[in-house]
Amino acid sequence: MSAPTTTRTRPLARVTRLAVATVLAAAGVLAAAPAQAADNPYERGPAPTAALLEASRGPFATASQSVSSLSVSGFGGGVIYYPTSTSEGTFGAIAISPGYTAAWSSISWLGPRIASHGFVVIGIETNSRLDQPDSRGRQLLAALDYLVQRSSVRGRIDGTRLAVAGHSMGGGGSLEAAVSRPALQAAVPIAPWNLDKTWSDVRVPTLIIGGESDSIAPVSSHSVPFYNSIPASSEKAYLELNGASHFFPQTVNTPTGRQMVAWLKRFVDNDTRYEPFLCPGPSGFEIEEYRNTCPSA
Predict the structure, then answer these.
(1) Closest among 232, 219, 222, 236 to 288, alpha carbons compared
(2) 55-270: CATH topology
């Protein structure tokens, strides 16, 4: 684990094994793609590019199905999105919660966006739209359990590679879920809200995405202290979007989708091809700030 770094509007230089790998690849020294895939049985899809991550859809065709609240327990139903391919083996899975008073439809673009990069996604409806973060955390875990144990797509899922995410109180809930289930492979709180400001017991690789102009969950009292309290020994990153309000996840947002996919591919699929998109990470006018611990090999 290298020391935490901070980026404002431009990336910091960093020499890594990835840079060495790039030189070796250009010289024809590295093994061909099939050999690399054999080294990582979870690798799915083509090598990433900025254009691929910024596109509205990834390389996998997807389908979706509704889940009735009457057919599940522990959460309020929702929608499952999944790759239709049957030739890639199993996929990692992620449960995503909307925010306080909101329905899944408010951030539903994330479902097909993430699924099209090789994940099974369940966007949940909560038991009550007034549910607090601790309840939303339990519901996220209940949704994952349903996916793995009872859903019609359970045969497509690797139950050892699971993640959680959410917006606002759903983001706060994803932190609660990460603490409750440290075996999770990744968490992505988006504009997270939680009365608890200290997350020193989070061991799950966590990407926090905040909005500079968020007046409901100001980054100074939510996202930033959440990030700072997660131990440096845990993989973590903080992305702050320039001028973004609390509701930035409710519109298709390229930095949000791009970084979520890169984070999930790196930590759920263990796909090191995505490391250059995490370290040094994104830059440009859309990015107010980016901090990270830089994934270690």
Answers:
(1) 219
(2) Rossmann fold (3.40.50)
Length of the chain: 297
Q: What is the pLDDT of residues 103-152, one digit of tens each?
A: 999 999 999 999 999 999 999 999 999 999 999 999 999 999 999 999 99
Question: What residues act catalytically?
Answer: 168, 214, 246
Domain boundaries, the chain: 55-270
pLDDT tens-place string over residues 50-59: 999 999 999 9
Please say whether the beta carbons of 240 and 212 come within 8 A: yes
Question: Which two tokens mark 105?
Answer: 């439809």
CB burial string 18-53: b at 16+ within 10 A, e below: eeeeeeeeeeeeeeeeeeeeeeeebbbbeebeeebb
CA-CA distance, 175 to 68, in Å (whole number)? 26
The pTM of the whole model exceeds 0.85: yes
Residue 285: Cβ within 10 Å count: 8
